[in-house]
Amino acid sequence: CLKSLWPALWTEGEAQAASMAVARENLAILEEQLRGKKKKRFFGGDSIGLVDIAGVRVLSDEEHPALRRWANEYLADEAVKECLPDRDQLVAHFSANRDKCISIAKSMLPPN
């Protein structure tokens, strides 16, 4: 799922639209995992696991309410708070390296 988001974030035009379609399909699968018959707090149940650690901040309450709830609970967990890097520093880092990120994302796209 996360791999499909990179091209969607760093490309433009038709390539971005195609990548966003794939990303949305993958997010819908994750959404269903959290909603399911047994509503889960995290992907592994009540405790944080590897899938939870890989989460991203590109979700809306309207499209993916269970994923937004999960993201909020994940970020509120004390163990996670201790390990998270400062968001402003991350934004500054990736903004400064935007061209490199775009090149990496484009290299992940399938050939035309």
TrEMBL record:
One of the protein's GO biological processes: glutathione metabolic process
Top-level taxonomic group: Eukaryota
GO molecular function: glutathione transferase activity
Protein name according to UniProt: GST C-terminal domain-containing protein
